[in-house]
């Protein structure tokens, strides 16, 4: 149980209401506050880059900044909420970015849903 809690606390991202929201991230991952749209198909790349992995195509999106390269998260938790325009998320350190396109179809392809 302690391992699960540790993994969930590392990086939590959500996709809802045509928004990509960062609910929690460690200090080694820096998401900048701004209104930069992101293509839905690039969200897996954001997750990979935030964990220190490389991606096939450069991501020239200013929302993700370089953080501490030696302390990367070990896991990413992504939650897709379908059928809801907006969730009442607690105020604070949540950062949201608009999606340029539909992420739902990509998510369903990857999970077989």
TrEMBL record:
PANTHER family: RENIN RECEPTOR. Residues 17-103 form the Renin receptor N-terminal domain. The keyword Chloroplast does not apply. This is ATPase H+ transporting accessory protein 2. It holds the Pfam family RENR_N. GO terms for cellular component: external side of plasma membrane. Keywords: Signal. Residues 1-17 form the signal peptide. One of its GO terms (molecular function) is signaling receptor activity. InterPro entries: Renin_rcpt, RENR_N. The keyword Signal applies. One of its GO terms (biological process) is positive regulation of Wnt signaling pathway.
């Amino acid at each position: 149980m302690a391992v699960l809690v540790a993994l969930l606390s590392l990086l939590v991202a959500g996709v809802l209401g045509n928004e990509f929201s960062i609910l929690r991230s460690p200090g080694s991952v820096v998401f900048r506050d701004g209104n930069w749209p992101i293509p839905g198909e690039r969200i897996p790349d954001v997750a990979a880059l935030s964990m220190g992995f490389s991606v096939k195509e450069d991501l020239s999106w200013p929302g993700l900044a370089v953080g501490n390269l030696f302390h990367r998260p070990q896991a990413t938790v992504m939650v897709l909420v379908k059928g809801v325009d907006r969730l009442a998320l607690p105020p604070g350190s949540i950062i949201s970015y608009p999606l340029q396109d539909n992420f739902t179809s990509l998510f369903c392809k990857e999970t077989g849903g």
